[in-house]
Amino acid sequence: MFNSLYKKIILLFLFLSITLAWSQQDINISIQAQQGPMTLEKNFKLADRYPIPSAWLLANACAGCHGTDGAEMDTVIPPIAGMDKKVFIEMMKAYQSEKASKSIVMTLVAKPLTSNEISAMAEYFSQIKASEWTQKNWNKDVKVPNWAEEKKEAK
Amino acid sequence: MKNLHTIAQKPDLSRRDSFKSIGLFMLALTTQGKSAHTSEKAMKQFRVVIIGGGIGGASAAKYLRILNPHVQITVVEPNPEYIFCPGSNEIFPGWCSIKDLTVTYNILKQRYNTQVIKDFAQHIDYDRKMLSLAKGGTLFYDKLIVSPGPTFDYAGIEGYSKDLADTHFPAAWHVSPQTLLLKQQIKSLKQGGTLCISIPDTPYRCPPAPYERATFIAHMLKKNNPAAKVLILDSQKDFIFDNIYPYYWEKHFSFGKSDAILERIGPEDGGHIVKLDASAKTLIGQNGQKFKGDVLNIIPPHKAAKFAFDNHLVQDQWCPVEYKDYTSLKQKDVYIIGDTILGDPMPKTGYIASNQARVAVQAINDELHGRSPGTPFMVNDCIAMVEQGFGMTLSEIFRYAGKNKPLEARHYIPGVDKNGFQQKMLGSEARAWQENFKRSVFS
Ligand SMILES: Cc1cc2nc3c(=O)[nH]c(=O)nc-3n(C[C@H](O)[C@H](O)[C@H](O)COP(=O)(O)OP(=O)(O)OC[C@H]3O[C@@H](n4cnc5c(N)ncnc54)[C@H](O)[C@@H]3O)c2cc1C
User: Fold this and answer.
1) B45 and B127 share one domain
2) Does B66 reach chain A within 8 Å, measured CB to CB?
């Protein structure tokens, strides 16, 4: 049951990100993008010259935003853990081709990935359980050092 | 196309001593002559010691444990908690508190079975593979991971010192009492006063953060002290997000006009600060230009950690490493990550530090399993807030380009759309990023 709900959420997210982004494509861009210095071609050449990075490393390069193994489930940044392989690949291809949007974060992130890298990540994430990595109340016992106790500000 | 994080000196990567074979020999010794794949029993004896429980060090501990349930992991860190710098500029306008940015080491200890020792690492005896701690303890290691962050070189600006930073002219470049001193100074800035922020030469930690800070402070002044001014004194000619910030500043702070709330002086006009005249509250630029301020926020130049200098891990100002696995080019069985390494063209960010940590611990784990380390993969993504409800983003990728060569960098910063939809969305994602990033390292 959870699984099908999860799939629905993912599909909804895909639908939303594509439609929302499509609706604002190229509208009144007032500042141009910046990119470089390595070209995309050179990026792909370098990627092909060396063995593919491990799926674990590729997948956890996403951890900074999506959480460990892509399993942060409760913020506006959607999770990836447990995502269906095909859905993952389709989404990444949509981002790469700018069909989704020119400027949402995932477009930038997806662009320089090779299709082998994308497949490896898809395989990896599809095998991870779609459950929250972070334990409840994980940081509830935190104390700030004495100097950092901020006084209530007078209104 | 310009390089995003240009660095003054180019790396002089001297050939690394060829100790790979010695490394394998040592491994063979620790595994008592068993096959290349270390036995479970030997792994349980295998000691990984990590210096620094910041973003790099904590990531190393957590992700090494995820990869390997057996090895012994010890983190040496003097503080009982860690306070994140990402998000810390929001302390000034009060959008977040220090508590929001603070994490404990409890999860690292309990969930990831890591020993955390509250002490300073002091001296490495490379022959005996022994680390001495400030309080007198010692630790033996098989592999050492070093992530102590940078040193702030207060003396790099003539007339400036840590003492002056603690009492009068805060740097506030990590969250410390200086942060609250600066907050106090912003709030009590006299009407129509000037607040200077001086930015050192690259590399310094988090390239966009000074501009973020200047922008947040300008918002505060616009509300409570509209005749006052933020003056950015910049050592950089080009700066990160310089396609977006000036556009935003023009719209909100009359940037470029005579009544600007925020101004920027580049190095061509004396913005590269070399000296402080403390009694006159004046910053002095390279060619003698003087900038008087009521509040001076001086970000000093950076260099490698004192610990790294003391233990011969530094060349020039930074620690040189092999980018395939982050092993030191100077000492064996030592991995160095985070802000203290040369790293160029990688910027000194937490996102990068945690990715470097994963490359290093994967290499250690692969070696234990008799595999050669795979190709590293390095990403730096930044979703930053210009104000609440206006975000921007940057993505960078760094490709391995061969032994003893710097990585190759490619970045992408999208533009701004006029209807503001994109910026709104990124604004809320920036918040979520801060929380998720904290969790990716400490939860
Ligand atoms: C204002 C500001 C905003 C920032 N915003 C972002 C952001 O949005 N995104 C981002 O990715 N990065 C950001 N950063 C950068 C980020 O904080 C650093 O790049 C990151 O903390 C580097 O990790 P590190 O492990 O090298 O150092 P640190 O996180 O500083 O950790 C070093 C640790 O080592 C300990 N230590 C030092 N010496 C010793 C010793 N001898 N023995 C034992 N322990 C020792 C210290 O106590 C410290 O806990 C920001 C920085 C600043 C200043």
Assistant:
1) yes
2) yes
